[in-house]
Amino acid sequence: MAPSRPVxxxxxxxxxxxxxxxxxxxxxxxxxxxxxxxxxxxxxxDITATNLDAAIAQLAGLRQKLIEFQLAGVTQGNGTIINxxxxxxxxIAGDVVTLSAGATASxxxxxxxxxxxxxxxxxxxxxxxTNSLTVSLQQTGVDRVTHLYNAGAETFTVLGNIxxxxxxxxxxxxxxxxxxxxxxxxxxxxxxxxxxxxLSTDFAKFGTQAIKFDGTGDYxxxxxxxxxxxxxDGTTAWVFDLEIRLTNTTxxxxxxxxxxxxKGINIAANGTIVxxxxxxxxxxxxxxxxxxxxxxxxxxxxxxxxxxxGGAKLYxxxxxxxxxxxxxxxxxxxxxxxxxxxxxxxxxxxxxxVRITTALRYTGNFTPSPTxxxxxxxxxxxxxxxxxxxxxxxxxxxxxxxWKVPFLLPQFQFREEGVNVAAVGQITALNYxxxxxxxxxxxxxxxxxxxAIAASEKGAVNGVxxxxxxxxxxxxxxxxxxxxxxxxxxxxxxxPTLIDGTGNTGDVYRVSVAGTRNLGSGSQTxxxxxxxxxxxxxxxRVINTESVASVFGRSGIISAQSGDYxxxxxxxxxxxxxxxxxxxAAVNELDTEKQAxxxxxxxxxxQGTSGQGTRVNxxxxxxxxxxxxxxxxxxxxxAGTLATLTLQEQGSxxxxxANEATLYVDATQILRYREExxxxxxxxxxxxxxxxxxxxxxxxxxxxxxxxxxxxxxALSNAFTVTLGGNRTLDNxxxxxxxxxxxxxxxxxxxxxxxxxxxxxxxxxxxxxxVLSNAPNAVDILTCYCAANGGNLNCNLTKDFR
Length: 802
Description:
By secondary structure, the protein is mainly beta. The N terminus is likely disordered.
């Protein structure tokens, strides 16, 4: 600081006069003739003397001195002027002059590396002079924001790998609602605000502002048609979430379509959700959920999972709790949505942290984040970056991709060879131990080095082998030629289970049970004692089947000889009437079942026996012979157009043998048959002839199937029964024959009061259909006479049999 100018009290002029040091001394010389005890008035805090001599002594002590400038403790020179050039800030407090790196709202040109200290809301212009640029911002106070803008030709590009949000790369829309309404996702969309849509400080979930919609034509549109097709076309999972404070439940939260003739999605504030496929009003999803409570912020999330168990699902979470699951109604449709993304149309309330991600952020209940989603925010030509106290934020420019801007978390993960070890708060010290470790600090980066073998080199190509729990090198790291016996293998059941693509190179098993097996590369047949070897890709057979020492006492190439096997040693497959399983037993069975001698007779007279017949010769005009399934049939035509069989009268009843029956005509030309020699002689009934039955005759009763319409096939029987399980109709019967009588037994079930209607062929006395007995389990009999084939039935109902 420059010394104060002295003030002299002049009693002649009766005033104080300020003079500089040289003028003051000259004046003092000029007035030396005056009294030596001439008094002066103190001029400042620095000049406090009231007499001239003392004031001069004080002035001498306040003369300006040269300043010594040092760099890292080494004197660089002396000077009297401090010039804060471009890129430096200056502050003066008391006797201390402070120079700081970084100039507010200034543009700086620098090479490949520069470290700048930040001040609140400081603007730093960056002009890259090299192809690679690293900028480090050192933050030492409370949380502040540093705005970076480009003062050169390079373009700022924010990369997506923002630490703290594993889904940031897949974030397609991110509106934080603070400072300005912009999309700060990795691929920002153009936003259009309609109506009175604006930021408001009335309410906010994060920070001091939120987006306000007043319900009178307000809405926000994002991107263009085609940007949001994934919301309806079923091609990818997605989640739409936001913090929302509704005043009422009118309006639409999100929409890319409004009707069933369009493709898109529509989510209303009252909780209805519809996804359209644009086909005649069909919906892919349609349902509703209870909307968030009004008057306070709630976290609302809607997610789509195309690979959900049982088919694609749409989920709704309110404050992290699953509120609704919707199942897909019909197939989604590809193609552009009807409109771009419309948010908040006609809604009333406040929105914060609006986000759409092409990933399923949530798969079950969750706790919504209490902090604003991490981002790098672009405001016009500026990037707003959160900086944490005491932490270096590094901005790296890569000519290939642009600026890399990290997001710093209050917690840091320490990793050992890629595996998380611990999470800590702010770092104040880093301690490393171990004789094989060294550390270097360069450019603000601490690098720990170790001479230990890196995990990436263990068990890797051109690396080192590892040891297993037994202190041995695993077979997977051994040369391919090395084999490891794993035990026995059952080829018939594939036990233990082997499959191509799974195993360690050199694994080998010995086949204990033979079998044919396809392990993924075609069928292979394994014999007992074969080996099966894994070559690193597939399992292969190693032929090692045990050979036979000798056969029937002979070795070498063995040819079958007579006498090698007996008939009892040769197996037989049972077939036809032969059940034996050995050739000998089959021969014996055939011998016992051989055909007896055939006896030829003419009207009962034996014509001779010729042993076992081996041939039947059919002669005569028109005679034919056929053979089928062991039966020989002679067809002998008669005099007419139809073949006839004539039986001659027998004087007495023939005597058939065991297991035989004889058909013959007796002396009265009655057709009879007799079973075995002692069997009863029975007359055979013949149509068109008066006969007397000596035993009961009749037809078996047929049970009809109960149904609304009861079908009747008259060819099955003359007597039918049915139990009614409801009101029924008895359909016209089929295959009725004129002159036949048909009887129906009709039973009520345990409920009773069942009615029965009749087909048009059923005719009743007076033309009126009868009414059934209605008591539970009641039995009625319907008797019908057929007047013509397939025609009307004259019927009468007899009721209530008890």
